[in-house]
Design brief:
single chain; alpha+beta; 6-stranded mixed beta sheet; 6-stranded antiparallel barrel; 14 helices; about 25% helix; about 35% strand; binds guanosine-5'-triphosphate; LepA_C_sf; membrane; mitochondrion inner membrane; GTP binding
């Protein structure tokens, strides 16, 4: 099949608007998968995706279609459905010539439809609006069409109205793709120029790369070169997903397919999304695809085994999970209170919570996961007594690295910056007041309000990532009966008055519970910490003082009275046997405990403290 009869396309949609269901219908329609229900949501591979209904991993599939007597080779490139994977999304779009802009007929245009539209538009894709779920009683296709016209300034005259569920109208889609989406351009006689779109790990074959060939050809045995890592590889196999991996003798300009190496690429981290490959020796004359970026982890959590004897088992499981997700960073961590553990970095809050869910599911009460935190940027002034750090700018991801501010005048303290995001919230009008209130509480700065359609409104805010991670989305959903949708993108850093708050138990800091926060939140959070910690701490043989402090300044305090007196006070002094028994019992209860200074703390207290109340 010549390049003029290739079509590469993807589906731009908000979560749950039916991307996976529609993909399945298209694969059935072209005979790529058999219509018997067993292939349900073929493109949604991972379990957790199914559970959460989120496409975490992009997968692609090729299809053959005969249109007016000629065979066409179609590549449907699946894109991750959620916002933390913006980089993957843009790379997927870059490999396509066009996209179906899918809108749910009952929900209309939502926050992610809009932001994904802009990404697709920026990549120069031809967009075909498709209104889905027209079988639903609450469907309102004319409203969806009006919103598409107003928001995207697209001509909706020939818009396809479909139901991915029942199949109504779906047969019109592929002819329209062939008519409206341009064939890829590219010259197979030029040297190889290949973009890495996605990757995944296979136990036998190592890392498998999903690629789009822009120029040239690639076949087994070729020696190729990665611009991002400056490493060379020998091609082991090339092929297309049809629907499973189907080896080909060669992949040519215009095609989307997979490649793996022999010897295998071992680390998923070496497959850099957005990397360009060429034939070894051609790296001087081939221009790499522009805009390559390393993913930056922006949300961090630490995890510890409740019982150190589980360390190995949990370490292996985390290792496996990370093997399949190149965007997670993993480091060893250790805490005085909780022992040895791990520190994990994620692209964003949803990415983080999907991973947390998987860990909790597998290890339940055997794992303690700290609250998510975000990085901090510190600018140290020159000649200021900060030693080697003077005059330097550093980004830290752990509160443990936040400097002690006591003893420095304001001018000599490092300037602190927090990551911010540009957030768009779409909501029905009646909840606008509540949405604005929540964004303001989250220290948001309003950037604009747009009304679209009769009832929808989109507010735009610059918001600290700290608050986004602190379940802003959950709060928005709660305040809008689940209607609000949120989308965000990285907006850099903003100077902020940040401080490190610590929890002290009998004046000794508990390192697992320290956080970098905005000063304005200190008072309230300090109160919350001490009350909550007191609630979950077992009584001790002596009085325990629990404090929340910034440096030397104590913001909140609670005392837990001694226990011993209470246990024994009601007993008669001569009842020695019973007295000994009670004391033994107390001792036993202390077995799997950790001590902070002279205070012993049960691990479940940490777990309860750290779990959301
Ligand atoms: P993500 O993978 O999370 O991005 O979601 P998605 O956009 O792929 O949506 P998915 O295909 O999983 O569909 C979401 C829900 O809508 C599922 O429960 C589908 O069964 C349902 N659904 C999809 N298309 C239709 C349709 O045409 N009509 C009706 N009634 N339901 C549909």
């Amino acid at each position: 099949i010549p390049i003029e009869r290739y079509r590469n396309f993807c589906i731009v949609a908000h979560i749950d608007h039916g991307k996976s269901t529609l993909s399945d219908r298209l694969l059935e329609l072209t005979g790529t998968i058999v219509k018997d229900g067993t292939n349900k949501q073929f493109l949604d591979k991972l379990d957790v995706e199914r559970q959460r209904g989120i496409t975490v991993k992009a997968q692609t599939c090729s299809m053959l279609y005969n249109y007016r007597g000629e065979d066409y080779l179609l590549h449907l490139v699946d894109t991750p459905g959620h916002v933390d994977f913006r980089l993957e999304v843009t790379r997927s779009y870059a490999s396509c010539g066009g996209a179906l802009l899918l809108v749910d007929a009952s929900q209309g245009v939502q926050a992610q439809t809009v932001s994904n539209f802009y990404l697709a538009f920026a990549e120069g894709l031809s967009l075909i609006p498709v209104v889905n779920k027209i079988d639903m009683p609450s469907a309102d296709p004319p409203r969806a069409l009006r919103q598409i016209e107003q928001t995207f300034e697209l001509d909706t005259a020939g818009t396809l109205l479909v139901s991915a569920k029942t199949g109504t109208g779906v047969d019109k889609i592929i002819p329209k793709v062939i008519e409206d989406i341009p064939a890829p351009t590219g010259d197979e006689n030029k040297p190889l120029r290949m973009l890495l779109v996605d990757s995944w790990y296979d136990t036998f074959k190592g890392v498998i790369l999903l690629v789009r060939i822009f120029d040239g050809t690639i076949k087994p045995g070729d020696q190729i070169y990665s611009f991002a890592t400056q490493t060379k590889y020998t091609v082991g196999e090339v092929g297309i997903q049809y629907p499973g991996p189907t080896p080909q003798t060669v992949l040519k300009a215009g095609q989307v397919g997979y490649v793996f190496f022999n010897p295998a690429m071992k680390r998923i981290q070496d497959a850099k999304i957005g990397d360009t490959f060429t034939l070894l020796g051609k790296e001087k004359i081939v221009e790499p695809y522009p805009g390559f970026e390393e993913p930056k982890p922006m949300v961090f959590v630490s995890a510890f085994p409740t019982d150190q004897s589980d360390y190995q088992k949990i370490a292996e499981h985390i290792g496996q999970l990370v093997l399949n997700d190149r965007s997670i960073t993993l480091m060893k961590d250790s805490s005085e209170a909780l022992g040895a553990g791990w520190r994990l970095g994620f692209l964003g809050s949803l990415h983080c919570s999907v991973f947390q869910d998987r860990l909790r599911q597998e290890h339940q009460s055997n794992i303690i996961i700290t609250e998510p935190s975000v990085p901090t940027k510190l600018e140290y002034p020159e000649a200021s007594g900060h030693g080697a750090l003077s005059g330097k700018t550093v980004v830290i991801s752990s509160a443990a690295d936040f400097p002690d501010q006591d003893g420095f005048t304001r001018e000599r303290r490092p300037k602190s910056f927090e990551p911010i995001v540009f957030a768009s919230v779409a909501t029905p009008k009646e909840y606008l007041g509540r949405v604005i209130e929540l964004c303001e509480v989250a220290r948001g700065e309003q950037q604009g309000i747009e009304f679209f359609g009769a009832n929808q409104v989109m507010v735009k805010y610059i918001i600290p990532l700290f608050h986004l991670v602190d379940d802003l989305f959950g709060k928005l959903k709660g305040a809008t009966k689940g209607y609000a949708t949120l989308d965000y993108e990285d907006a850099g850093w903003r100077e902020a008055d940040l401080v490190k708050m610590q929890l002290l138990v009998n004046r000794v800091p508990v390192d697992a519970i320290s956080r970098v926060i905005h000063r304005s939140l200190a008072e309230r959070l300090g109160r919350l910490w001490v009350t909550k910690f007191r609630e979950h701490l077992d009584r001790q043989m002596f009085e325990v003082v629990i404090q929340a402090a910034i440096g030397k300044k104590v913001l909140a305090r609670e005392t837990l009275k001694a226990f011993r007196k209470d246990v024994l006070q009601k007993l008669h002094a001569s009842d020695v046997g019973r007295r000994q028994k009670l004391l033994d019992k107390q001792k036993e209860g202390r077995k799997k405990l950790q001590s902070i200074g002279n205070v012993t703390i049960d691990h479940t207290s940490f777990q309860k403290f750290l779990s959301k109340s």
